[in-house]
Amino acid sequence: MAKNHAPRFLEIVNDAKSRVSECNVNDVHEMQAKNEDFSLVDVREESEFSRGHLPGAIHLGKGVIERDIEKAIPETATKIVLYCGGGFRSALAADALQKMGYENVISMDGGWSGWKQAGYATENPST
Fold this sequence. Notes:
127 residues, 5-stranded parallel beta sheet, alpha/beta, single chain, globular, 6 helices
């Protein structure tokens, strides 16, 4: 499951993770089971999202999230959980959203890979 990421990429991810809140896939699954009010945002590429995503997730790719977040989620106090493939891109996106004034942003550590590994339900799963 682990990938060999470039050292400088990992440096900026670790820097972002020092400023953002994180949760894990079990936390998000529990939040959904309790019908908690939050926005779930998939920051992966469109091709990744179309092959499968978490139930109820909207897609705002990391490359456009700063441009499009205010239209998709205008209220900066909204609880937002971001996820990607493993928790790196979502941490970077969470850091950017916090800099934009979003107050309750959480990066889901483990991402899509961890969600699938846990056996939780997906939408539009790839076969």
